[in-house]
TrEMBL record:
IFT80/172/WDR35 TPR domain sequence ranges: 616-762
Main location: other
Name of this chain's protein: Intraflagellar transport 80 homolog (Chlamydomonas)
Record SUPFAM superfamilies: WD40 repeat-like
Keyword Ribosomal protein attached: no
Length: 778
């Protein structure tokens, strides 16, 4: 990716350009010390004078009123806040009329910013004060008063905090008066510019020490650039938070959100004092010290999937290369490309007005449909459909271009959603709630309605990243999540009224991705590349989990690699320096998933015998138990030397009825309550009591016996034997109470137990006879 810049031969402004601001994706306003406001139309390449300002008014900063105001949406911003050196800010209309001028500060007003919903304006002055104003220009409060100028200010993502400069320091101040202020030394020289992105919650700063830095919202340094040739005079996040631009003397740089540089341009501009991105994130404008306004747009973005490599060569042109046969196709678009995604045999391209869907088998005839809004900020794909996110909502489309659903929820802010906070599968959409980051909301992809009776999943800590698995039936859909402690958890999307079971499967996990064709999860875990061949084993036999993991030394990757995709056996990673590296995962695990899904257990056994890999045997054991194929499970557990489990499987096989077998399989997986419920539902009271006795759940065993008025003596007998073995006396009041009136006779108890087992065998035999007779009649 790089910036393609354009400059006019002669500057339109006669003096330094101090600020620029976009009204639409193709219309820009620029303000200069020559007292002129110019309007630039990028479609017609026309530049016109909007207004000539008074001779004593020198503009400093310009910010247009935001497009989205609460739930209402404006077609375009109609008013801007223009700050000047005379201590005033001015509300200026699109026609250039000054609607209102407000005395705000002593000395120059160095910055003025609207908050995200347009309800407040913040100004920062040379006098060291920061003030908040209403939309109409009425003073609400003086938030900060310090002894040095405030050169730059930015709103937090929720408009409840501000970030500002104080000499070499950065300060985050909440609007609530009693809340803690975060303050830290950021640079070795004056901090000149800051920006705070609402999507990724990351902070940018640039200073006179010639460095730009990336911070998180707690003030922790994520990236520091090397010292540049000149001080950093401007910087700005792209709206989607994926890239940012940095301006300096005769310098324009494009960087990834993690800090590494995509491209460096050296235009003849003088210092770039202000940078602004268009709302769709494809174009950049800079206010230059020599009177020029520099324009730049993104080109050479790159997408890969299997044997296809796609490059955005021009604003409206893509080149598709098939690396297997070197065939090249050129795709032309009517409007400029804003977003694109390549996966699952389809290329989806969003332009400023339309969406194009290409099938990888035919690049000549795309399916085209119109978009409501031309600012698509996020695009996700699944096998059967894809998801578009723009400023007004989320939309699921089929690859035939049909709108399937549009999920909505209370307090939804589509403009701050990113790929870490949204996940898509064939049947489910998962969204992390921005208002409470511990909460994950689930929606049916086909209807847009909430799943699980609208009850969301609530984790104990804030969630950083979520990912839905891509394969298998919707009833078995799983979601992986990384929380604030960098722990990796797995849970089911569907809970059927039960409390969700959230199982930890890894720690110190920085990045993760599901495979596109099997439910295999890979991640960067501390300094290792880890692949969980069968993460769902944690719900069947959690002790098998460590044995189903494939580990690879991460030393071949540089600092902080990030997983981009996991397709087939190839994992694509982006290193901390921006370079792409690839890692391969053995194919056997994918084949094993395929055999398990289609119940080809003989083929699965053959594969494990051929591969001679203990982790595959462990996966097969878990898969067979999950699918209740006891013979395969027995062989797999025997192969990894788990003899106690082999014995228990044989015990399950010997059970006289299906209900008992099912209950003991649930016991095997640790689902004690479900096992007990299965037995009670089938009328096997003694077996339910015996399960609790075997687990030493004495109180529950006695409770069941008393409730069903049977086998109270059995519970008391086993309890007495247990205490006798350990040389203890009975202290439990309930057992003392019932033991007074009950006589324990082991011979009678044994006879009762044998009778219970005989009844169960007889019932099972009758059931099977009735089943065979019914099948013959059919």
């Amino acid at each position: 990716m790089r910036l393609k810049t354009s400059l006019l031969k002669e500057p339109k402004h006669k003096e330094l350009v101090s600020c620029v601001g976009w009204t639409t994706a193709d219309e820009l306003y620029s303000c200069s010390e020559d007292h002129q406001i110019l309007k630039w139309n990028l479609l017609t390449n026309e530049t016109g004078l909007v207004v000539r300002l008074p001779d004593d008014m020198y503009p400093v900063d310009l910010h247009w009123f935001p497009k989205t105001v609460g739930a209402k949406k404006q077609t375009q911003p109609e008013i801007s806040a223009l700050t000047s050196t005379d201590g005033k800010f001015h509300l200026v209309s699109k026609m250039g009329r000054i609607e209102k001028s407000v005395e705000a500060h002593k000395g120059a007003v160095l910055a003025g910013r609207w908050n995200y919903d347009g309800t407040a304006l913040i100004t920062a002055g040379e006098d060291g004060q920061i003030k908040i104003w209403s939309k109409s220009g009425m003073l609400r409060s003086t938030l900060v008063s310090q002894g040095c100028p405030v050169y730059s200010v930015a709103w937090g993502p929720d408009s409840d905090r501000i970030l500002y400069t104080s000499r070499r320091q950065l300060i985050i101040k909440p609007l609530q008066p009693s809340t803690k202020v975060i303050q830290w030394k950021a640079h070795d020289g004056l901090v000149l510019k800051v920006d705070w992105n609402s999507v990724n919650d990351l902070i940018l700063s640039g200073g006179e020490d010639c460095k730009y830095k990336v911070w998180d919202s707690f003030g922790r340094l994520l990236h520091s650039s090397t010292s540049q040739d000149y001080p950093i005079t401007s910087l700005s996040w792209a709206p989607d938070g994926e890239v940012f631009a940095v301006g300096s003397f005769n310098t324009l740089r494009l960087c990834d959100k993690t800090g590494w540089s995509y491209a460096l341009e050296k235009p003849n501009t003088g210092s770039v004092f202000n940078l602004a991105w268009s709302a769709d994130g494809t174009q950049l404008a800079g206010a230059c010290g020599n009177g020029h306004v520099i324009f730049a747009h993104l080109v050479e973005q790159h997408w890969e999937w299997k044997n296809f490599s796609i490059t955005l060569t021009k604003r409206r042109t893509m080149q598709v290369r098939n690396v297997q046969n070197d065939a090249v196709d050129v795709l032309e678009f009517r409007d400029r490309v804003i977003k694109a995604s390549l996966a699952f045999d389809h290329l989806v391209v969003a332009t400023s007005l339309q969406c194009y869907v290409y099938n990888s088998r035919n690049w000549n005839t795309p399916l085209i449909f119109d978009l409501k809004e031309g600012t698509v900020s996020l695009m996700l794909q699944a096998e059967k459909h894809f998801l578009l996110v723009d400023g007004s909502g989320l939309y699921t489309f089929s690859y035939e271009g049909r709108l399937i659903s549009s999920p909505k929820f209370l307090g939804m802010r589509a403009d701050v959603l990113n790929a870490q906070a949204v996940s898509l599968s064939n049947d489910t959409i998962a969204i992390r709630d921005k208002s409470d980051e511990k909460v994950i909301l689930f929606f049916d992809a086909m209807t847009g309605k909430p799943l699980s009776d609208g009850k969301p999943l609530t984790h104990k800590l804030e969630v950083l990243e979520i990912a839905l698995d891509q394969c298998g039936p919707s009833t078995e859909r799983k979601i992986a999540l990384i929380d604030k402690n960098r722990d990796l958890y797995l849970t089911s999307v569907h809970h059927l009224g039960k409390e969700p079971k959230i199982c930890k499967i890894g720690s110190m996990v920085h990045s993760m991705a599901w495979n596109d064709s099997a439910n295999i999860l890979c991640g960067i875990q501390d300094i290792q590349f880890t692949v969980w061949y069968y993460p769902s084993v944690v719900f069947t036999d959690k002790e098998l989990l460590p044995r189903t993991i494939y580990l690879k030394d991460g030393s071949e990757f540089s600092h902080a690699p990030h997983i981009l995709s996991y397709v087939g056996t190839k994992v694509t990673l982006r290193q901390g320096d921006g370079s792409l590296v690839y890692s391969s995962v053995p194919l056997y695990s994918t084949l094993l998933h395929e055999y398990s899904t289609s119940a080809r257990w003989e083929d699965a056994l053959r594969l494990c015998r051929f591969a001679k890999d203990q982790s595959l045997w462990a996966c097969l054991a878990g898969m067979a138990m999950a699918n209740r194929d006891l013979n395969t499970a027995e062989m797999a557990y025997a192969a990894i030397g788990e003899l106690p489990r082999v014995q228990y499987i044989n015990f399950i096989k010997e059970q006289p009825s299906k209900e008992s077998s099912l209950a003991h399989m649930l016991m095997f997986s640790g689902h004690v309550q479900e096992a007990e419920a299965t037995l009670l539902q089938s009328g096997l009271i003694y077996q339910a009591i015996q399960v609790n006795i075997d687990l030493f759940n004495w109180n529950r065993a006695l409770e069941l016996a008393v409730k069903h008025k049977t086998h109270v003596d059995t519970v008391l007998a086993y309890r007495g034997k247990f205490l006798q073995t350990f040389g203890r006396k009975e202290t439990n009041k309930r057992f003392l109470q019932y033991s007074e009136g009950v006589e324990v006779d082991w011979e009678k108890i044994q006879a009762k137990i044998e009778m219970e087992l005989f009844k169960e065998r007889e019932k099972a035999a009758n059931t099977s006879v009735r089943g065979s007779v019914a099948s013959r009649h059919l």
